[in-house]
Amino acid sequence: MPPTSARHSTRTVVLRAPLSGVLVPIDEVPDPVFAQRLVGDGVAIDPISHTLCAPCDGIVVQVHAAGHALTIATPDGLEVMMHIGLDSVKLRGRGFEPRVSAGDRVETGQPLIDFDSDFVVRHARSLLTQLVITNGERVARLEARRGTVVASVDVALEVTLRDEDVAEPAPVEVANLSTALVGSAFGLHARPAALVVAAARASASEVRVRHGQQVASATSLVALLGLDAGPGATVRIEARGPDASAVVSRVAAALARTFDGDAPERPGAPAAAASTPGPPEAASESTRVLTGLPASPGQVLGTIVRAGPDEVHVREAGGDPREERSRFERARARSQAELEALVTRLRAESTPGRSTLFEAHRALLDDPELLEPTFEGIETGRSAAAAWRDAFAGQAARLATLQHHHLAARAADVDDVGHRVLRHLVDHPVEALELPHGAILVAEQLAPSAVATLDRARVAGFCTVAGGVLSHVALLARSLGLPAVTGIDPAALDVADGTPAALDGTRGRLVLQPDADEVRRVGERQAVEAARREVDLLAAAAPAVTTDGHRVDVLASVTSLADAAAAPRAGAEGVGLLRSEFLFVDRAAPPSEEEQRVVYAELLSTSGAGRPVVIRALDAGGDKPLAYVPIPNEPNPALGERGCRALLGRPGLLRAQVRAVLRASAHGAARLLFPMVATLPEWRALRACVEEERASLGADPVPIGLLVEVPAAALLALHFAREVDFFSIGTNDLAQYTLAMDRAHPKLASQVDALHPAVLQLVARTVAAARAHARPVGVCGAIASDPQAVPILVGLGVDELTVPVALIAGIKARIRELSWGACQVLAARALAAETADEVRALDAGHTP
Ligand code: PEP
Ligand code: MG
């Protein structure tokens, strides 16, 4: 626990310039992560030399796998990180040549990394190099120099250390919360647990979580998973320290959070109970069919490649415990660097859901429940590898016996991280399998990290004996679009490499030696799908006009800059929903007005002139808690301080975003959309705020819209229509609130169907109100891309459908096949139906 104040500080560490060049204040670095000191305080250098040198004596604690960054620990315990270039991680090591490794002792001026400045400057965003202190709690004062510096000669930073011995004790506060709820549909699994650990580790208080008789330190991921707290479990949070009440609410928010992939997929999400492989199906003589669970849809032909268990031989007896310990620390640092590179890559690929899993893996590397037994083992004479293996294997075995199967599945994560470190301990690098094209991997179990890094050019799909449809591996496969079957008949493990096979991830089957008929069937299905996609894409830019001349605009639903950049080429007529939360999550403080302005301006520019970009104001709270938007623990977060309610209570946050949108609006057709509005006074307060900020900036007005996702807003749509510029119907929440069924509830989520006639009646009412006042109205919930729903929504008269970028061309093509007249008849029948199933049956009848 760091001291919170110091009476006097004496020691000063001088850091020499690691490169020759011009010093630049850290807050002028054009990257908010550095400019806002999220990594740490320090200085940047615009370099003219190309060998990064040690700014001080110390030990290299980490060299980034991409070779562009490293960290040195000084003898005083200061952690000094150097990061060459901006966005240079994406070069994946090209252009960088590290000359040291983790664990090396270095002296001031010693060369650390050679780099090709021409290459980096051409391929990365900038060559600007950062020198920052990552453990700021050790710093009492930091002075960044200015001007031109010569590497290893001139001083770049002067850091005065806190004197820990004379620190004044911080006032102690005690806070307990006895009814914190576990929100995720999978219970307290790795992702919420990692958020809890992050909140606890960032706090100066001691935090514990109790579940029944069990108690866990909130800084230990393994201990938290071991609580076996399932979905909806009530736990107690106890904190003692200077910021006890703040950390309790942060931990409660983390516990309450739900995640992408929590909700079972519809339609027909396979139940976990169906996990026993069925008997082999009848098939022709040489053909064999093995069954399992449909973990990720799609059909592929390929050849079997058995991904064998990773055998690692471990020396049991250790040498000098100090050497064993430093060997262990090196292996841990390398694993940390690998995981960091993986997280950075997945984030860059805009797959935050996948990256959070590996953030949880990173937290496991610091987990006291794994580290302490390892250190004890080393002290008693065991080798680092044997001590670590026993520690993680023991914890994984314990987790595997937990009652909640999704928590038990986290044993695979502990095992994955465990083997990663073990391989470094025995110098056994992860060997890339030599894969043929069209490989169908068969394994007892695949590590999540192995799936995330599969060579997509060669791997057609995979099946595993272990795991259900809720495993991380299954979730990863779905997010990658990779067909997969889990829980496959173990006979699959005996199939020889090279055996031809057809994998059906939609039905959960592996057909070995498929006969000519099966090959033809799969081939035909694939060919039809591929040809259809190609044809749809060719016509993507053309408007979606029904056979009888009615036009419907199809816009993109966007959660990253990458999505927005891809949207125009995919045929989007604009961005119908920018979920701005992507700018706000996974950080300690909200983005500044200026940071937001830059992003919105870029979005507007990439979308192209005249194409609307609907920026939804931050939809925090509920299932999207943010560390810096503390919302007291709510028994019913979906009915609590969510969306515009959270914003109206935090005017600073609201106004900064409104101003950022208004200032960026010169770059394109910006629109502002407010979520979770239930009452007219809420709407009027939001509109007044926009108007005040507009007047103070002297900006042009931007259209402001209402996200209709609370039944009250749909029921009073006629009143709202007089005051809004446009409506967007958020059918995901509208269905959850209309049916009073939690959209993430493990049992109920599959019934939360926006094609329920009650929801459709609210949609129809909103459309009628919009028509009466000549306001545009769109649908931006997931139903907008459901092929069964499209004709009904078109028939109800919505002007726009907002859908994921990859589906735009297909939806436009579908609309072009429809007759508006027939859609209107269909919509009328849907409104008169009694159940969602009845509506879906109607649609099936309508489909040509
Ligand atoms: C909705 O509720 O339909 C919607 C578009 O918002 P979100 O899914 O982000 O809650
Ligand atoms: Mg919503």
Summarize the structure in words.
With 848 residues, the protein is an alpha/beta fold. The chain is built from 27 helices and 37 strands. The protein has an 8-stranded antiparallel sheet. Strands 21-28-27-23-24-25-26-22 form an 8-stranded mixed sheet. Helix 6 packs antiparallel against helix 7, helix 9 packs antiparallel against helix 11 and helix 16 runs parallel beside helix 18. The protein is globular, with a radius of gyration of 28 Å. The termini are far apart. Magnesium ion (MG) binds next to helix 22. Magnesium ion binds next to helix 22.
Relative strand content: 15-25%
Q: In which order are the strands of the major sheet placed?
A: 10-6-7-8-12-4-3-14
User: What structural class do helix, strand and pairing data support?
Assistant: alpha/beta
Instruction: Name the average pLDDT.
Output: 83
Number of strands: 37
Cα distance spanning the termini: 67 Å
Gross morphology: globular
**Unreliable segments (pLDDT under 50, ≥5 consecutive)?**
1-9, 165-169, 260-284, 844-848
Ligands (ions, cofactors included): phosphoenolpyruvate, magnesium ion
Main sheet specs: 8 strands, antiparallel
What fraction, in percent, of the residue positions are helical? 25-40%
Number of helices: 27
Q: Radius of gyration in whole Å, from Cα?
A: 28 Å
In brief, what are we looking at here?
It is built from 27 helices and 37 strands. It is an alpha/beta fold and 848 residues long. β18 and β19 (214-217) form a beta hairpin.
